[in-house]
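hey so i finally got around to running the thing on that chain from the lab meeting. sorry it took forever, my laptop kept dying and i had to restart like 3 times. anyway pasting the input first so we r on the same page abt which one it is
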Amino acid sequence: MTVTEQAPAPVVSPPSLAARARSIGGSPVRDILAVTARPEVINFAGGLPAPELFDAEGIAAAYRDVLAEMPARALQYSTTEGEPTLRAALAARTSARGLETGPDDLLVTTGSQQALSLLATALLEPGDTVLVESPCYLAALQAFGFAGARVVAVPGDEDGIDPEALEELVLRERPKLLYTVPTFQNPTGRTLPAARRAAVAEVAGRCGLWIVEDDPYGELRFEGERVPWIASYDGARDRTVLLGSFSKVMAPGLRLGWLRAPAALRRACAVAKQAADLHTPTVNQLAAARYLADRDLDAHVARVAAVYGTRRDAMLAGLPDALPAGSVWTRPEGGMFLWARLPQGYDSTALLPGVVRHDVAYVPGAPFHAGEPDRATLRLCFVTQTPDEIAEGLRRLGAGLSEGLSEGPGEALREA
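ok and heres what got predicted. didnt touch it at all, straight out
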């Protein structure tokens, strides 16, 4: 009998990734955090709340109580919209801050970052235009990029978006939405004044525009008076999505956020969430609701904000000696970040490797821009380190920048 050998079957490569996965890069912030994870590095790059200020005891007690009293419910599936007790508590907090809200106005999300993804799914078709601030929260640029949107920056100044420039862009570009972090913005720390908020709301109402108002930092005010949400102005009430989060005021590991939106859009986001993760973890929601019932979150946030204010002051005090002459920076009234600009011609991305060799890090400003980047800019987080650590980190930053600048224009500078 003759045995016939068969040739091996050809190996065919699997289909390629989706175009959106090939075209959208990772987060430079998370890349920097991975590179600078060594404990000796003083890291001004991350947007990490101070872990020693977490109310770990109070949060642990909330989990213990929930698991002891209602284990079957806490460990079971939940509704997509969110646990009723948590939504009721969130609605009461929102109403107390000047925006009348009912539990059914809210959708609980797995962090406010998921809310951005759900809104992109519900609102955007590939090629739609989205307007953003300049510079803009980096992960929002990623979310809109994954949706295939065309992202356009709205001109502004040290106070934020210019309403007249916004209206010109709305009339010319016909965008679906404007995304903004108007209070203690990431990355700049600036706050949009009340008069501009009213003007932005008026443009949205008159020209037809969704507003996505992201407010993860607004409670962390340590100076000045609170400014009303854009969502509270008449022109924007029926077209503003307000995003909130416990990440910066309770703990980011809970992954609890929420969106407040008009009914039709909220329902669309709920359907998108069903397809994404069914619902946000039940036990986390119930523990957060118990914490709100048993503890004084406002008092806790006030203590955290006071510490953050001291740390901001420590960074502001050290910046004149750390940055090159001619640099400028913001003075935020709250939040976690400030924004610096080195003199014209400096490239903060090119300077970063030399700075990291001095065991300190920042985030270059270029990735935060939707359009032409300002390469002389950088973001500094001032909340994760103590004042003494901030002073030492700024000393290292000054040494690293000085060394990088002395290497010559080929390495540290770019043509203006």
